[in-house]
Amino acid sequence: MSSLSTTSLDGALKQLYGVKRVLDLTYERNPFLAMVPKFTGFGGRNLPLVNTVTQPQGVSSDFSVAQGSRTSARIEDFLLTRAKKYSIASVTGEAALASKNDAFSFLSGVSVQVDGAMKALARSLASDLFRNGGGSIGRVATAINVATITLTDITEIVNYEVGMQVQLSATDGTTGVVRPGFVTIAAIDRNAGTLTADQNWNVGIPTAAINDFAFRNGDFGAVLSGVEGWIPPTPPVLGQLYFNVDRAIDTRLYGQRFSGVGLTIQESLIGGQSLAAREGAVISHAFINNIKMRDLINELGAKVIYDRVKSFDAAHIGFRSVVIDGDAGPIQVVADNTVQSDTAWLLQMDTWKLCTLGSATQLLTLDNNRILRETFADSYECRVGFYGNLGCTGPGFNCRVQLS
Questions:
Q1: Same domain, 278 and 383
Q2: How far is 324 from 304, CA to CA, in rounded Å?
Q3: How many Cβ atoms sit within 10 Å of the Cβ of residue 200?
Q4: Domain boundary among 158, 187, 216
Q5: Which domain holds residue 194?
Q6: Nearest in space to 298 (alpha carbons), one of 330, 266, 251, 326
Q7: What predicted TM-score, i.e. pTM, was given to this entire model?
Q8: 3-state class of 307 per DSSP?
Q9: Model confidence over 336-395: pLDDT tens digits?
């Protein structure tokens, strides 16, 4: 290929971004995204997820009582809907023209941008998968009449990049409205957990306030509903629907909660597994923040046992785990830096499914074009997208653990 044409470039991109490469780009450093079971046939307006709340009643030592008290099994269908997210890769017309006689050079430049777009989308999805669907990626802890602010939880600095547009709200995105305006991140101190904007925060967002929740521009109330959405920190209230289900009637519809405050991480994980096992759960995996994993390894000392867990759909991709023997079986503890720093998620993996329309991250090529001329700019773009949501067919078999 000695010269550039959109047809030849499109064909090259098709070959370059085969299934294995896309999975490699998507799953790198994103353990839960890699390990969660997948369903890629999420068509239609919604996807019913059947959850059995109660078994048929009509049990008694007295036959007439058993017959008179019989009831049918109660089944609730969560009607899962799709969320959307996009990532755009762009190459300037000047770069295209400069390499018009060297298509491989241009393809290399395009692939750098497309790789980055896929990785950025995957990182955003990885964070969403542990959150409640509101879109919040952090919270402002300091004054906002300055350009540099500190996050309440500095480990959430992993959710930000230079150049990202950020909005604020007084709420976490599941209710309320986003404040008008936005700022653009100009610098990040990842050790201090600080974000420096291109202007004072209260200039770009005039009504900004301390303790506001932060959002990637456009994400407020619009992202997939992650593990925290299915297993909220507090029980839902009656009449509050979640994917068309009133979950307040039974913990089986919104999961277990265990407080590990005052306990070691090991004790907390074993306690949470034991609580869920009481309800029949077979929890084999726990996901914690990297800082908590460090603490767990130090806590176990010479008794630490390492293992390796695999991706659901890419056997060549795996992640190191620490094995803890719980009273209901071994727990594979996996570090994922998008997990909230004060939380451990104890999950029965076969109750979860990332349901998508096509691959979780995919080049959007419905018109068979992988590279497009931009209408209002001297550049060419590739579009990467996600259509789907996280589903659970047994919330009660999973446990949220509050760590010290």
A1: yes
A2: 8
A3: 17
A4: 216
A5: 136-216
A6: 266
A7: 0.90
A8: strand
A9: 999 999 999 999 999 999 999 999 999 898 777 777 777 788 887 889 999 999 999 999
